[in-house]
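Supplementary Note 3. Input sequence used for the single-chain structure prediction.
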Amino acid sequence: MSKRKNTDSRLVYSTDGGRLCPQCLRSVAQCVCGASKPASTGDGIVRLHRETKGRGGKAVTVIKGLPLSGDALKDLASQLKKKCGVGGAQKDDTIEIQGDRRELLKIELEKLGYVVKLAGG
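The predicted structure, written as discrete structure tokens, is reproduced below.
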């Protein structure tokens, strides 16, 4: 079997070490990117969930699957809360916006170039 010399392709998974970091091309466990390590991109789709569980019946919109981390995610959360005129929080890799604002958030995230799907509730 001959080796292909395609410079456009890159290895994303190896049976030896599992998923590879897209920047340093090492296994995720051995990644040396540190703070500049990219967030998990998943399947590239941002999902908007409506949840009421554990909130006394009050609805919140949960945004999952954003390929951002740290300050970039915090800035986006702040921008979306201002656009909706409500409060919210940024927890781990998700953003919570008070109320059922899925339609407005979908429009805003699509303007920013994300692929968005409405999910749940």
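Strands lie at 13-14, 18-19, 45-51, 60-64, 88-91, 94-98, 115-119. Residues 45-119 form a domain with the Translation Initiation Factor Eif1 fold (CATH 3.30.780.10).
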